[in-house]
Amino acid sequence: MKVDAAVLYGVGEPYKIEEIELDAPREREVLVELTASGLCHSDDHLVTGDVPLPGPMVAGHEGAGVVVDVGSQVTRVKQGDHVILHPVPSCGQCRWCVTGRANLCDLGAFALTGYAPDGTYRRHLKGEDIGAFCQLGTFSPYTTVSETQVVAIDADVPLEVAALIGCGVTTGVGAATKVGRVQPGDVVVVIGVGGVGTSAVQGARIAGASTIVAVEPGEYRRRRAAEFGATHSAASVEDATGLVRDLTHGVMADVVLITVGVMHGELLGQALALTSKGGRCVITSVAPLAETTAAVSLFDFAMSNKRLLGHVYGEANPQDDFRRLVDLYRSGALRLDEMITQEFTLAQINEGFAAMHAGTTVRGAIRYR
Ligand SMILES: [Zn+2]
Ligand SMILES: [Zn+2]
Prior knowledge:
One of its GO terms (molecular function) is zinc ion binding. This protein folds into two domains: about 1-165 and about 335-365, Quinone Oxidoreductase, Chain A, domain 1; about 170-310, NAD(P)-binding Rossmann-like Domain (Rossmann fold), CATH 3.40.50.720. By secondary structure, the protein is α/β, with parallel strands linked by helices.
């Protein structure tokens, strides 16, 4: 079928809206009519070149919609199901999936290639194959995806809200609860409160943190963080260091969550200085692939028994975690409607990312219907 899509041709270029040819689903694939797609910073790493762009690509990896067609062998969902897409597949068979670590599924290796694990493409433009970021390519109103990348949810949940669970919310809440293992009464610092960081603030609040410090240079996001559970805020890591020292009588934070747009080595030493003895420092943010150094006090790191944890996708097991997050949304504990601060049409996608960079959104989203 012919559909519009926002295609990224090269590093530093704006998205171009093109009419592409989208293939019908193969045996174990489904065709999804999307309701919305979030604008996530991970898409932007392709634009900046932090993450390699192998060729023309339909970006977008945070979406939800309705299944409109299924391949002959599909068993996980059926036509008419409301689904959230997930950027990391869960095959259910590899050693990672069968040990409850679906975020590390071996099929995740194809997230950046643009093509499916069998080496084929589902999208074509002017006779040439083009890729789909994370095999999803949600910057198009329709997408053909593997059934290993969809989870059905109840139809009462608004799909434009559910879309955020596909990436940012799952990553941020998981960073706080699964990786950071925030405990009741913990002091938590969240560095960077865009979509993922705001979700991390909510995860920390839901887990029972008594003090949540949001660190964010932009006044708008810093102010909004309070609505999601931040008890204090600081405009810089330096300011946060003094604040947390005062709040904790010098003990510092039990958990520090790094959720900035782009990770750099210099931030690591600062974040570890914010971390208490025996505390946990969690890196969520993507760093440029070429960056390989960080300045850290190794003496303090070992002698203070600190823990440094990386993770991808909030250690999510989508088949279980999406249901939990949907239930938390229904209960009112997880505030998702409030996170979508601006909606754009597909044609406005470049404006949407400009708003993300300007810090005038918590989460921007493309709305298809
Ligand atoms: Zn994302
Ligand atoms: Zn797997």
